[in-house]
Amino acid sequence: MGKPTVDRMLAGFKSFKAIYYEQRPERVKDLVDMGQKPEVLLIACSDSRVDPAILTNAEPGEMFVVRNVANLVPPYEPDENYHGTSAAIEFAVCDLKVRDIVVLGHECCGGISALVEHAETGKVPDRDFIGSWMSMARSCVEHGPDVEKVSRHSVRNSLNNLMTFPFVRERVEAGDLTLHGWWYGMKEGILWRFNSAKDTFEQGE
Ligand SMILES: [Zn+2]
Questions:
Q1: What is the 133 CA–ligand 1 centroid distance (Å)?
Q2: Looking at residue 198, which CATH number applies to its domain?
Q3: Cα of 18 to ligand 1 centre, how many Å?
Q4: Would you tell me how many other CB atoms lie within 10 Å of the CB of residue 113?
Q5: CA torsion angle for 137, 138, 144, 145 (degrees, to 10)?
Q6: Is residue 203 helix, strand or coil?
Q7: Residues 166-205: pLDDT tens digits?
Q8: What ipTM does this complex have?
């Protein structure tokens, strides 16, 4: 039997430390002394196969990341509920003043599959939170039953929801914040990018 993953992760931290603390200590010192100044807010799925830093080769300090089930952005709803994703968006836009927001969807998403299955069969997940969380993408199932098509529509839906945040809309309209919809085709290793002018996803690398 191989080593448990947590043991390999501890060893992984040692090699991370060797790279950043021993080979590039000035970079770490800058990040500590100057604080973080990421240019990008990236909203990704919690799925273990779609780690944004691994997929994009980003370095510490470059991306402010929110991960949740199915990379969903809720609509702007300032109330007494616990809005983790909205709080992160607010901090990234209003305080860190990121220049770009990327919503990164992906192929084979379990959250989107559950959403489509619910729409097809009426079966409600036997869970306390996932059903109501996924319901914010409910309008996307009209593009089903193709899960991957629904998944890409969900990225568009999240981009639309981002524009319901007044501080996002204001900066987008002023031209100093850009929204991006990306979709990772896991099977072929293709990053699709949403072209809003053509209202379609186009194949990148
Ligand atoms: Zn997912």
A1: 13
A2: 3.40.1050.10
A3: 32
A4: 15
A5: 110
A6: strand
A7: 999 999 999 999 999 999 999 999 999 999 999 999 997 6
A8: 0.99
